[in-house]
Protein backbone atom coordinates (compact mmCIF):
# COMPACT_ATOMS: atom_id res chain seq x y z
CA UNK A 1 0.00 0.00 0.00
CA UNK A 2 1.35 3.38 -0.97
CA UNK A 3 -0.51 6.64 -0.59
CA UNK A 4 0.84 9.63 -2.54
CA UNK A 5 0.45 12.89 -0.67
CA UNK A 6 0.05 16.28 -2.26
CA UNK A 7 0.78 19.47 -0.41
CA UNK A 8 0.25 23.09 -1.42
CA UNK A 9 2.91 24.48 -3.78
CA UNK A 10 6.09 25.70 -2.15
CA UNK A 11 7.49 29.17 -2.78
CA UNK A 12 9.86 29.41 -5.72
CA UNK A 13 9.63 28.83 -9.42
CA UNK A 14 6.40 26.88 -9.08
CA UNK A 15 4.88 29.71 -7.04
CA UNK A 16 5.83 32.28 -9.72
CA UNK A 17 4.18 30.16 -12.41
CA UNK A 18 1.03 29.93 -10.30
CA UNK A 19 0.94 33.72 -9.87
CA UNK A 20 1.26 34.23 -13.63
CA UNK A 21 -1.51 31.72 -14.24
CA UNK A 22 -3.83 33.53 -11.80
CA UNK A 23 -3.06 36.87 -13.48
CA UNK A 24 -3.87 35.34 -16.88
CA UNK A 25 -7.22 34.15 -15.52
CA UNK A 26 -8.04 37.59 -14.10
CA UNK A 27 -7.05 39.54 -17.22
CA UNK A 28 -10.31 39.08 -19.23
CA UNK A 29 -12.44 40.21 -16.29
CA UNK A 30 -10.10 43.14 -15.59
CA UNK A 31 -10.47 44.26 -19.20
CA UNK A 32 -14.27 44.07 -19.02
CA UNK A 33 -14.32 46.12 -15.83
CA UNK A 34 -11.91 48.64 -17.38
CA UNK A 35 -14.27 49.07 -20.35
CA UNK A 36 -17.16 49.62 -17.97
CA UNK A 37 -15.16 52.28 -16.11
CA UNK A 38 -14.19 54.07 -19.33
CA UNK A 39 -17.78 54.15 -20.59
CA UNK A 40 -19.07 55.68 -17.35
CA UNK A 41 -16.50 58.50 -17.34
CA UNK A 42 -15.69 61.39 -19.71
CA UNK A 43 -13.19 59.02 -21.36
CA UNK A 44 -16.10 57.20 -23.03
CA UNK A 45 -15.15 58.86 -26.31
CA UNK A 46 -12.59 56.03 -26.62
CA UNK A 47 -13.73 53.09 -28.77
CA UNK A 48 -13.80 50.07 -26.43
CA UNK A 49 -15.61 47.55 -28.62
CA UNK A 50 -12.50 45.59 -29.72
CA UNK A 51 -11.44 45.18 -26.09
CA UNK A 52 -14.70 43.46 -25.19
CA UNK A 53 -14.56 41.30 -28.31
CA UNK A 54 -11.09 40.09 -27.28
CA UNK A 55 -12.24 39.13 -23.76
CA UNK A 56 -13.59 35.62 -24.61
CA UNK A 57 -10.48 34.83 -26.66
CA UNK A 58 -8.20 35.75 -23.75
CA UNK A 59 -10.32 33.68 -21.36
CA UNK A 60 -10.09 30.64 -23.63
CA UNK A 61 -6.29 30.68 -23.32
CA UNK A 62 -6.14 30.36 -19.52
CA UNK A 63 -9.53 28.92 -18.53
CA UNK A 64 -11.79 26.05 -19.43
CA UNK A 65 -15.26 26.24 -20.98
CA UNK A 66 -16.91 27.42 -17.75
CA UNK A 67 -14.45 30.28 -17.30
CA UNK A 68 -14.76 31.25 -20.95
CA UNK A 69 -18.55 31.22 -20.70
CA UNK A 70 -18.36 33.46 -17.64
CA UNK A 71 -16.16 35.91 -19.58
CA UNK A 72 -18.63 35.87 -22.47
CA UNK A 73 -21.54 36.59 -20.12
CA UNK A 74 -19.63 39.47 -18.55
CA UNK A 75 -18.70 40.93 -21.93
CA UNK A 76 -22.33 40.78 -23.11
CA UNK A 77 -23.55 42.34 -19.87
CA UNK A 78 -21.04 45.18 -20.18
CA UNK A 79 -21.95 45.72 -23.84
CA UNK A 80 -25.69 45.91 -23.06
CA UNK A 81 -25.09 48.21 -20.09
CA UNK A 82 -22.84 50.65 -21.95
CA UNK A 83 -25.04 50.71 -25.03
CA UNK A 84 -28.05 51.55 -22.86
CA UNK A 85 -26.16 54.15 -20.83
CA UNK A 86 -24.83 55.90 -23.94
CA UNK A 87 -28.12 55.59 -25.87
CA UNK A 88 -26.33 53.82 -28.70
CA UNK A 89 -29.04 51.27 -29.53
CA UNK A 90 -29.95 51.42 -33.22
CA UNK A 91 -26.46 52.37 -34.36
CA UNK A 92 -24.58 50.11 -36.74
CA UNK A 93 -21.54 50.13 -34.48
CA UNK A 94 -23.38 48.47 -31.60
CA UNK A 95 -24.76 45.63 -33.72
CA UNK A 96 -21.40 45.13 -35.39
CA UNK A 97 -19.79 44.77 -31.95
CA UNK A 98 -22.42 42.25 -30.87
CA UNK A 99 -21.94 40.21 -34.04
CA UNK A 100 -18.16 40.17 -33.59
CA UNK A 101 -18.57 39.26 -29.91
CA UNK A 102 -20.92 36.40 -30.84
CA UNK A 103 -18.54 34.95 -33.42
CA UNK A 104 -15.45 35.27 -31.23
CA UNK A 105 -17.34 33.74 -28.30
CA UNK A 106 -18.32 30.67 -30.34
CA UNK A 107 -14.73 30.22 -31.51
CA UNK A 108 -13.37 30.73 -28.00
CA UNK A 109 -15.73 28.18 -26.44
CA UNK A 110 -14.80 25.61 -29.09
CA UNK A 111 -11.10 26.34 -28.58
CA UNK A 112 -11.28 26.12 -24.78
CA UNK A 113 -13.06 22.75 -24.99
CA UNK A 114 -10.43 21.41 -27.38
CA UNK A 115 -7.57 22.73 -25.24
CA UNK A 116 -9.09 21.24 -22.11
CA UNK A 117 -9.47 17.80 -23.72
CA UNK A 118 -5.88 17.96 -24.92
CA UNK A 119 -4.65 18.93 -21.46
CA UNK A 120 -6.65 16.14 -19.85
CA UNK A 121 -5.19 13.62 -22.31
CA UNK A 122 -1.66 14.89 -21.61
CA UNK A 123 -2.27 14.77 -17.85
CA UNK A 124 -3.56 11.22 -18.07
CA UNK A 125 -0.47 10.21 -20.03
CA UNK A 126 1.79 11.82 -17.44
CA UNK A 127 -0.09 9.99 -14.69
CA UNK A 128 0.40 6.66 -16.43
CA UNK A 129 4.12 7.36 -16.77
CA UNK A 130 4.30 8.36 -13.09
CA UNK A 131 2.58 5.15 -12.03
CA UNK A 132 4.96 3.10 -14.18
CA UNK A 133 7.95 4.93 -12.66
CA UNK A 134 6.57 4.37 -9.18
CA UNK A 135 6.12 0.66 -9.82
CA UNK A 136 9.69 0.43 -11.13
CA UNK A 137 11.28 2.25 -8.18
CA UNK A 138 8.91 1.32 -5.33
CA UNK A 139 7.40 -2.03 -6.20
CA UNK A 140 4.15 -3.13 -4.54
CA UNK A 141 4.78 -4.92 -1.26
CA UNK A 142 3.11 -8.33 -0.77
CA UNK A 143 0.89 -8.79 2.26
CA UNK A 144 2.96 -11.73 3.50
CA UNK A 145 6.61 -12.65 3.20
CA UNK A 146 7.21 -16.05 4.72
CA UNK A 147 6.18 -15.93 8.37
CA UNK A 148 5.89 -12.13 8.35
CA UNK A 149 3.15 -9.67 7.51
CA UNK A 150 4.45 -6.48 5.94
CA UNK A 151 3.07 -3.17 4.69
CA UNK A 152 4.62 -0.02 3.25
CA UNK A 153 3.43 3.55 2.85
CA UNK A 154 4.94 6.46 0.95
CA UNK A 155 3.85 10.08 1.38
CA UNK A 156 5.35 12.42 -1.20
CA UNK A 157 5.54 16.07 -0.14
CA UNK A 158 6.29 17.36 -3.65
CA UNK A 159 3.17 18.69 -5.38
CA UNK A 160 1.73 16.05 -7.68
CA UNK A 161 4.57 13.63 -7.01
CA UNK A 162 4.20 9.92 -6.36
CA UNK A 163 7.85 9.09 -5.73
CA UNK A 164 10.79 11.02 -4.33
CA UNK A 165 13.98 10.44 -2.38
CA UNK A 166 12.63 8.00 0.21
CA UNK A 167 12.86 4.28 -0.49
CA UNK A 168 11.92 0.90 0.93
CA UNK A 169 11.85 -2.72 -0.19
CA UNK A 170 11.42 -6.19 1.32
CA UNK A 171 12.63 -9.43 -0.27
CA UNK A 172 12.35 -13.03 0.90
CA UNK A 173 15.70 -14.80 0.59
CA UNK A 174 17.38 -18.00 1.80
CA UNK A 175 18.73 -15.92 4.71
CA UNK A 176 15.26 -14.78 5.76
CA UNK A 177 13.28 -11.67 4.90
CA UNK A 178 15.57 -8.72 4.18
CA UNK A 179 14.30 -5.15 4.31
CA UNK A 180 15.76 -1.77 3.42
CA UNK A 181 14.50 1.73 4.25
CA UNK A 182 16.44 4.79 3.16
CA UNK A 183 16.34 8.52 2.55
CA UNK A 184 18.31 10.32 -0.15
CA UNK A 185 19.57 13.66 1.14
CA UNK A 186 18.16 15.79 -1.65
CA UNK A 187 15.07 16.37 -3.73
CA UNK A 188 13.77 16.17 -7.27
CA UNK A 189 14.67 13.79 -10.07
CA UNK A 190 18.34 13.36 -9.00
CA UNK A 191 17.08 12.02 -5.66
CA UNK A 192 14.76 9.60 -7.45
CA UNK A 193 17.70 8.37 -9.55
CA UNK A 194 19.84 7.83 -6.45
CA UNK A 195 16.99 5.93 -4.78
CA UNK A 196 16.63 3.72 -7.85
CA UNK A 197 20.36 2.95 -7.84
CA UNK A 198 20.31 1.90 -4.18
CA UNK A 199 17.17 -0.20 -4.56
CA UNK A 200 18.48 -1.95 -7.67
CA UNK A 201 21.67 -2.94 -5.88
CA UNK A 202 19.74 -4.11 -2.81
CA UNK A 203 17.38 -6.33 -4.83
CA UNK A 204 20.33 -8.17 -6.30
CA UNK A 205 22.70 -8.24 -3.33
CA UNK A 206 20.19 -9.72 -0.86
CA UNK A 207 20.31 -13.05 -2.69
CA UNK A 208 24.12 -13.37 -2.79
CA UNK A 209 25.62 -11.60 0.22
CA UNK A 210 25.81 -13.70 3.38
CA UNK A 211 26.10 -10.70 5.71
CA UNK A 212 23.98 -7.54 5.92
CA UNK A 213 27.15 -5.45 5.93
CA UNK A 214 27.92 -6.87 2.48
CA UNK A 215 24.41 -6.03 1.25
CA UNK A 216 24.58 -2.42 2.31
CA UNK A 217 28.15 -2.20 1.00
CA UNK A 218 26.87 -3.18 -2.46
CA UNK A 219 24.19 -0.48 -2.18
CA UNK A 220 26.84 2.11 -1.36
CA UNK A 221 29.03 1.02 -4.27
CA UNK A 222 26.07 1.36 -6.67
CA UNK A 223 25.33 4.86 -5.34
CA UNK A 224 28.94 5.97 -5.86
CA UNK A 225 29.08 4.47 -9.36
CA UNK A 226 25.88 6.24 -10.36
CA UNK A 227 27.08 9.59 -9.03
CA UNK A 228 30.42 9.22 -10.86
CA UNK A 229 28.88 8.91 -14.35
CA UNK A 230 29.70 12.17 -16.22
CA UNK A 231 26.67 14.31 -16.89
CA UNK A 232 24.30 12.19 -14.82
CA UNK A 233 24.07 14.57 -11.88
CA UNK A 234 23.30 18.21 -12.59
CA UNK A 235 25.88 20.36 -10.74
CA UNK A 236 23.00 22.46 -9.46
CA UNK A 237 20.91 19.48 -8.36
CA UNK A 238 19.72 19.27 -4.78
CA UNK A 239 21.52 16.04 -3.89
CA UNK A 240 24.01 16.18 -1.06
CA UNK A 241 25.85 13.03 -2.07
CA UNK A 242 24.76 10.56 0.60
CA UNK A 243 21.84 8.38 1.64
CA UNK A 244 20.80 7.39 5.14
CA UNK A 245 19.79 3.74 5.05
CA UNK A 246 18.93 0.83 7.28
CA UNK A 247 18.86 -2.84 6.32
CA UNK A 248 17.22 -5.48 8.48
CA UNK A 249 17.07 -9.26 8.32
CA UNK A 250 14.39 -11.39 9.97
CA UNK A 251 15.45 -15.07 10.01
CA UNK A 252 13.36 -17.97 11.29
CA UNK A 253 14.46 -17.41 14.90
CA UNK A 254 12.91 -14.76 17.23
CA UNK A 255 15.50 -12.10 16.35
CA UNK A 256 16.00 -9.24 13.92
CA UNK A 257 19.42 -8.17 12.65
CA UNK A 258 20.01 -4.54 11.71
CA UNK A 259 22.78 -2.53 10.07
CA UNK A 260 22.12 1.19 10.43
CA UNK A 261 23.96 3.71 8.26
CA UNK A 262 22.97 7.06 9.73
CA UNK A 263 19.23 6.37 9.63
CA UNK A 264 16.62 6.90 12.39
CA UNK A 265 16.47 3.72 14.50
CA UNK A 266 13.55 1.32 14.00
CA UNK A 267 10.83 1.24 16.63
CA UNK A 268 9.75 -2.02 18.25
CA UNK A 269 6.22 -2.27 19.63
CA UNK A 270 5.91 -5.00 22.27
CA UNK A 271 3.20 -5.32 24.88
CA UNK A 272 1.89 -1.83 24.22
CA UNK A 273 5.31 -0.21 24.74
CA UNK A 274 7.59 1.21 22.06
CA UNK A 275 11.38 1.29 22.25
CA UNK A 276 13.99 2.39 19.73
CA UNK A 277 16.55 -0.15 18.50
CA UNK A 278 19.61 2.05 18.74
CA UNK A 279 22.76 0.86 16.90
CA UNK A 280 25.59 -0.45 19.02
CA UNK A 281 28.15 1.40 16.89
CA UNK A 282 26.83 4.40 14.92
CA UNK A 283 27.92 4.41 11.26
CA UNK A 284 27.83 7.24 8.68
CA UNK A 285 25.33 7.28 5.79
CA UNK A 286 25.97 5.64 2.42
CA UNK A 287 28.44 7.66 0.39
CA UNK A 288 30.54 8.57 3.43
CA UNK A 289 32.36 5.26 3.93
CA UNK A 290 35.70 7.05 4.21
CA UNK A 291 34.65 8.12 7.71
CA UNK A 292 34.36 4.51 8.91
CA UNK A 293 37.38 3.44 10.94
CA UNK A 294 38.31 -0.01 9.65
CA UNK A 295 35.88 -2.50 8.16
CA UNK A 296 32.12 -2.05 8.74
CA UNK A 297 30.96 -3.84 11.87
CA UNK A 298 28.63 -6.80 12.11
CA UNK A 299 24.87 -6.42 12.32
CA UNK A 300 23.23 -5.62 15.65
CA UNK A 301 20.85 -8.32 16.93
CA UNK A 302 17.62 -7.62 18.80
CA UNK A 303 14.84 -9.81 20.15
CA UNK A 304 11.86 -10.00 17.77
CA UNK A 305 9.32 -12.45 19.16
CA UNK A 306 5.90 -13.50 17.85
CA UNK A 307 3.41 -10.67 18.35
CA UNK A 308 6.09 -7.98 18.06
CA UNK A 309 5.69 -5.17 15.56
CA UNK A 310 8.67 -3.41 13.95
CA UNK A 311 8.34 -0.02 12.26
CA UNK A 312 11.01 1.34 9.92
CA UNK A 313 10.56 4.93 8.75
CA UNK A 314 12.29 8.01 7.36
CA UNK A 315 12.98 11.29 9.11
CA UNK A 316 10.14 12.97 7.20
CA UNK A 317 7.82 11.24 9.71
CA UNK A 318 9.47 12.19 12.99
CA UNK A 319 10.46 15.68 11.79
CA UNK A 320 6.94 16.60 10.66
CA UNK A 321 5.81 19.67 12.62
CA UNK A 322 2.45 21.04 13.63
CA UNK A 323 1.46 24.73 13.60
CA UNK A 324 3.24 25.23 16.93
CA UNK A 325 6.50 23.75 15.59
CA UNK A 326 6.29 20.52 17.62
CA UNK A 327 7.56 17.29 16.07
CA UNK A 328 5.30 14.32 15.42
CA UNK A 329 5.52 11.90 18.38
CA UNK A 330 5.73 8.65 16.43
CA UNK A 331 6.26 6.33 19.46
CA UNK A 332 3.20 7.82 21.20
CA UNK A 333 1.15 7.40 18.03
CA UNK A 334 2.23 3.75 17.76
CA UNK A 335 1.26 3.05 21.37
CA UNK A 336 -2.09 4.77 20.82
CA UNK A 337 -2.89 2.55 17.83
CA UNK A 338 -1.67 -0.60 19.59
CA UNK A 339 -1.19 -4.06 18.14
CA UNK A 340 -4.84 -5.05 17.75
CA UNK A 341 -5.09 -3.95 14.09
CA UNK A 342 -3.41 -5.67 11.15
CA UNK A 343 -0.37 -4.20 9.42
CA UNK A 344 -2.23 -2.16 6.80
CA UNK A 345 -4.78 -0.79 9.28
CA UNK A 346 -1.92 0.10 11.63
CA UNK A 347 -0.19 2.16 8.93
CA UNK A 348 -3.50 3.76 7.96
CA UNK A 349 -3.97 4.93 11.55
CA UNK A 350 -0.42 6.32 11.68
CA UNK A 351 -1.00 8.01 8.31
CA UNK A 352 -4.14 9.76 9.59
CA UNK A 353 -2.43 10.78 12.81
CA UNK A 354 0.51 12.26 10.86
CA UNK A 355 -1.76 14.27 8.56
CA UNK A 356 -3.80 15.52 11.50
CA UNK A 357 -0.61 16.65 13.19
CA UNK A 358 0.66 18.54 10.13
CA UNK A 359 -2.78 19.68 8.93
CA UNK A 360 -2.11 17.89 5.64
CA UNK A 361 1.08 19.87 4.97
CA UNK A 362 4.27 17.81 4.79
CA UNK A 363 7.59 19.62 4.45
CA UNK A 364 9.46 16.46 3.42
CA UNK A 365 8.78 13.06 1.91
CA UNK A 366 7.83 10.43 4.47
CA UNK A 367 7.92 6.64 4.26
CA UNK A 368 6.96 3.92 6.73
CA UNK A 369 7.46 0.17 6.53
CA UNK A 370 5.90 -2.21 9.02
CA UNK A 371 6.98 -5.78 9.83
CA UNK A 372 4.78 -8.07 11.96
CA UNK A 373 6.01 -11.40 13.21
Question: Mind explaining what this structure looks like?
Answer:
- By secondary structure, the chain is α+β, with helices and mostly antiparallel strands.
- It has nine helices and eleven strands.
- A six-stranded antiparallel sheet has the order 1-2-11-10-7-8. A five-stranded antiparallel sheet has the order 3-4-5-6-9, with helices on one face.
- α8 (330-337) packs across α9.
- It is elongated and about 95 Å long.
- The protein starts with 12 loop residues before the first helix and ends with a strand.
- The model is unreliable at 1-14 and 234-239 (pLDDT under 50).
Series of secondary-structure elements, N-terminal to C-terminal: HHHHEEEEHHEEEEEEHHHE
Structural class: alpha+beta
The radius of gyration computed from the alpha-carbon positions, rounded to a whole number of angstroms, is 29 Å
**Contiguous uncertain segments of 5+ residues:** 1-14, 234-239
User: What's the helix count?
Assistant: 9
| Major β-sheet profile | 6 strands, antiparallel
Short description:
This protein has 373 residues and is an alpha+beta fold. It contains nine helices and eleven strands.
What are the key terms here?
about 20% strand, about 375 residues, 9 helices, alpha+beta, six-stranded antiparallel sheet, elongated
List the helices and strands and how they pair.
Elements: H1 13-39, H2 49-62, H3 65-86, H4 92-137, E1 144-145, E2 148-155, E3 166-173, E4 176-186, H5 188-205, H6 212-228, E5 239-250, E6 255-261, E7 267-270, E8 273-276, E9 300-303, E10 309-313, H7 315-318, H8 330-337, H9 343-358, E11 366-372
Amino acid sequence: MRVPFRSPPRPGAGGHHQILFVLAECLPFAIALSVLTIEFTPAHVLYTGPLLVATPALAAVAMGPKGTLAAVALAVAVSVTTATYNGAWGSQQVYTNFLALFLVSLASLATSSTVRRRREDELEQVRRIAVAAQEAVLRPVPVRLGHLRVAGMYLAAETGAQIGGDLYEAVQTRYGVRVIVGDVRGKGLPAVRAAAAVLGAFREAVHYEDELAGVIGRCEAALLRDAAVPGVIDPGALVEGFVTALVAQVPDGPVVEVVNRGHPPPLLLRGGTVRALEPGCPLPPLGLAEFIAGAPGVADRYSFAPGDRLLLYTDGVIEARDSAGDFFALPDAMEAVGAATDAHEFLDELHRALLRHTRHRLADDAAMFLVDR
